[in-house]
Design a protein that fits this description.
binds S-adenosylmethionine, alpha/beta, transmembrane, 9 strands, 14 helices, single chain, transmembrane helix, 430 residues, elongated, seven-stranded mixed sheet
């Protein structure tokens, strides 16, 4: 499961876990570092080096330590974003305080990293005191041996940080890339949206058709739109306004660039052309494509950061919500997918329409050579997730084979439109 999307544990539990992890990690680091340093001195392996070489060894050991620390910082940031826990309580404190003021973005991660690094540097002090104290107190330990001890301790600490980072990655992400640290909008656009690929041929046709069930002249929300607009053109005529939400500010910035016609903004015209074809125009002209782009630009009135982890990702609901390849493509954990679906579908008004698309039986899809998590769901899972409050439109859940396993990591998609029930006992018009 990826770093960003593990269900949050309760705040108290997160503190208890972090405190325990901090104590365990501090003792483990001390044991590994001290044993490596002492072992290196005792082995006599570096005993014949001259003073200069010993100093050079110490410098190299610091580089190794910094390298290990870098891996540790990344893993710690992912762990905090995913679970709210850390193996360093000060880092968690800094993260939580900054997150409260500035949100869970880069400022919070930076604060966590500064606190983590500060603590690691502070942990060096006892080693200096021990090494030079021992060298000063007894002739049995030379200055060079003290430096070799420090260098060895650094190497031990580097190994420990590397191993901890690997363990954290396994726990948090089962090797999956993280939206918080690994997602690059440009890579996604290049890998998936240079041409209209089989999954999008089916998805856009589905959206065009399903949009006929949407209440006209009402706002439409796209939840988890990513840096993309290819699904949005389908609703431009129906919607009074289009609201676009995504978790990552850099995705929303990419959309903003398209709206502003910024140089280098992605070219969505092949997708607009295909949308118009699905609407029944067999040969859209350039002017018609431009007109749909302009209409879409004019209808987009809100671009907002949303997080499917929150029970109420937005403080309003919508008559129509579209969420394509979001919940299923944001987590590798089935229970978390169900939770995301509950939160996203909770944004649909009673009687409103929910349109969704998902990768079928996909554990991971590649973007820029990195594997992002898939929830590995099928049509039965989607039906079950919608069942309590939604009735699928006539077509039910469509399964479309797309044969893109080699290119992207999935071989089929699920498409579904569903209407939210009115609460029992309410009166309906029409
Ligand atoms: C595979 S992309 C799909 C983007 C777009 N809907 C498409 O069809 O190309 C998955 C999207 O889910 C978004 N996402 C990941 N975690 C999320 C969360 N917790 N809340 C909302 N969106 C999230 C990512 O930012 C990303 O844009």
């Amino acid at each position: 499961m990826d770093a960003a999307h593990r269900p949050a544990m309760s705040p108290v539990a997160a503190w208890v876990v972090s405190l325990a992890a901090t104590v365990a990690s501090t003792y483990a680091l001390d044991a590994v570092a001290a044993a490596t340093g002492a072992g290196l001195v005792a082995s006599g392996m570096l005993g014949d080096l001259g003073h200069r070489s010993v100093v050079a060894f110490l410098l190299v050991s610091y580089a190794a330590w910094a390298f290990g620390l870098r891996a540790g910082l990344r893993a710690n940031g992912n762990l905090l974003a995913a679970t709210g826990t850390s193996s360093n309580v000060l880092s968690k404190l800094a993260y939580d305080l900054t997150r409260r003021r500035c949100g869970a973005g880069s400022a919070a991660r930076l604060a966590a990293a500064v606190a983590y690094t500060g603590t690691e540097i502070a942990k060096e002090v006892p080693y200096y005191l021990a090494a030079f104290g021992a060298a000063a107190a007894t002739d049995a330990i030379t200055t060079d041996e003290a430096l070799i001890f420090l260098g060895g301790a650094n190497l031990g600490a580097a190994l420990y940080e590397g191993a901890l980072a690997r363990l954290t990655r396994t726990v948090v992400g089962r090797g999956h890339a993280s939206f918080d640290t690994d997602w690059v909008p440009a890579e996604y656009l290049t890998d998936y949206y240079r041409t209209v690929e089989p999954d999008e041929i089916a998805t856009i046709a589905f959206l065009v058709d399903a949009m006929r069930h949407a209440e006209p002249d009402q706002p439409v929300l796209y939840f988890g739109t990513g840096p993309t607009l290819h699904h949005v053109f389908a609703c431009a005529e129906t919607a009074s306004e289009i609201h676009l939400g995504d978790y990552l500010p850099e995705n929303l910035a990419e959309i903003q660039r398209w709206i502003e016609r910024a140089p280098g903004a992605h070219d969505w015209r092949p997708f607009v052309r295909y949308t118009l074809r699905c609407e029944g125009n067999p040969c859209p002209t350039d002017a018609e494509v431009t007109a749909r782009e302009d209409l879409t630009r004019a209808k987009i009135t809100t671009i907002v950061r949303v997080d499917a982890r929150h029970p109420r990702p937005l403080d309003r609901s919508y008559p129509t919500v579209v969420s394509a390849y979001c919940a299923d493509s944001a987590t590798g954990d089935r229970a978390t997918w169900e939770l995301f679906m509950r939160h996203i579908t909770g944004l649909v008004q009673p009687g409103g329409l929910f349109l969704t698309a998902a990768l079928r039986r996909c554990r991971g899809y590649t973007v820029g050579g990195k594997t992002f998590p898939g929830a590995d769901i099928d049509e039965g899972d989607l039906r079950a997730a919608l069942r309590p409050h939604f009735t699928p439109l006539r077509e039910g859940v469509e399964v479309v084979p797309t044969d893109q396993h080699g290119a992207h990591g999935y071989a089929g998609i699920l498409l579904c439109g569903a209407r939210r029930a009115h609460p029992a006992g309410t009166l309906r018009c029409g």
